[in-house]
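User: Predict structure, ligand iron/sulfur cluster.
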Amino acid sequence: MRRTSWQEYQKDIADDKYYYARSCIRQNFFPGSEKAFLDIMHNDLGIDIFDDPLHTSCTGIGYHSDIVPLETIMTVVARQFSLMADAGYEHFISSCITSFGIYNEILSTWEEFPETEERTRRYLKEATGRELVKPRSIAHTSDIMFHHRHAIARKAKRQLRNAFTGEPLRVVEHIGCHYAKIFPKSGIGGSEFPYVLAGMIEAWGGEVVDYPERRHCCGFGFRNYLVQANRGYSIANSHKKLESMAPYRPDFIVANCPGCAMFLDKWQYAIAEMEGTVYGADGHGIPVLTYEEMAGLVLGYDPWELGMQMHQVDVEPLLDKMGIEYDREAKYLGKNGKYIGKPDIAAVNCEEARSIYEIKR
Amino acid sequence: MEDVRFEEGLKSCMNCGVCTAVCPAAEFYNYDPRQIVTIVQTRDEAEIERLLRSDTIWYCGECMSCRPRCPRGNTPAYVIQALRTLSQRTGLFVESEKGRQQLALKRTIGDNILRTGYCIVPRSVRPDLHPEQGPIWQWIVDNDTELYARFSDVYGKEGAGALRRVDDKTMDEIHRIFEVSGGKAFYDNIEKHSERKAREMGYDGADEEYMMATYTTNSDNHYEI
Ligand code: SF4
Ligand code: SF4
Ligand code: SF4
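Assistant: Predicted complex:
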């Protein structure tokens, strides 16, 4: 039976005129994805989206590491909203799942405890002279991509299909805990049947793979990754997910949250180095994509312009499967085509690596 | 206990244990969010103080998986966040190994925010402290100006785009917000209690050596029941 339960959790998403808030994590690890998102919106879809040079971190990682107090993050968030109003926008979109959760949590806390909103207004005024203006809507950037998925499908240069067999690619999606576990109603499909990524995958010709630990956390756990002594928690949770999905032989993983994408990529490397296990069907790692990279490939963007050379697990097997033409050597070029050398090879990569382990392929 | 998260996070717990069943921290640590909620619900002050001094409240990953599943509409994670805040305000966080790590978090993520306007920037993710980031990260850090320039015209400079430098006026506003809203005092308090504890533990204060000890020490006794 096909699930349609996601339709019970629809939310209104504005069609145009977005105020864009960057993510510290995404710009660090996936700067090409941020660029691709803006390019797709501007150039492919002709949408008005404002990239403000004045906003900052939402301090969300600090808040969830419990070093930034609630009153402080509320005031930082209020400043972002006031910048949006100054710029003449009212639809706030954030490129980070953690901050999307935070914006929703704070707006809801202000509703429920009006004295916290009053206090924030006072703090913001006193600290910056600014006035808090609340947004008309909040969305995650993947909601926006989902909203325009059919328009993207109409412009598609490629499908999420195996170019040789015509079969749909098998895709594992990971939506990230804070997307819908905090406020199920603010995520497409809610927390039980999130449809935001699945909707893109289906619209672009792929097939979504269900697996037992689909909703389990990627293992970030904030302090559980950020402090070296606690990283066992983080890798153990990613390990649990990877073990659970591997038997379904996914062609790639796509993640909603930049943190999750990074962890599922990097922990595959660490697991391969630590115990010699790789999870990809081809004897390498499973490529992990951001949804911007997935959309970019569908629209015919060059993989290195999308920043896919910054992944630890090589994406070439996927590109080859999709029949994408690309320049293998251009992967190692910096700005203006300067060759910058290659990273060392690891067990999850496609070239032969030296390892003390017999890699179990 | 005036934190709104105590009120929002805990209406009335029926001890069903659903939160513990879905909790990723409960799976890998000797940790049971249900028990924490129960203790807070009893308002037994001695027991609560024991929690504030313990490793127990620091295991949670704040994934929020417990929130949508609680049949009573509680959020154990909010209760834990409120306890962590209280443990730091009272200085009791330094009495546990996991609690002492707050200094490392303050000195990394916390100071990054006030220095750069971001939680992290590429050069703050040092490959020697992050071996799990693999050879690719070493390559990125070694070639950062060349690589990031492919995706941003403003890497380390002012303007709009990825990894731009946050301008001075904005940084002033962020500093003012931290002062006015208590964020700065919260940081200072973490430093103050860490300094005290470090001396008690035989360090020359909360220096780099103590900070690195909080960052790397794992007594490995967090798993047994
Ligand atoms: S939650 Fe996301 S946007 Fe906010 S500070 Fe962290 S990484 Fe940056
Ligand atoms: S799920 Fe809710 S009611 Fe059940 S033990 Fe946890 S907090 Fe209590
Ligand atoms: S938020 Fe904390 S207590 Fe709740 S499920 Fe996640 S790790 Fe467990």
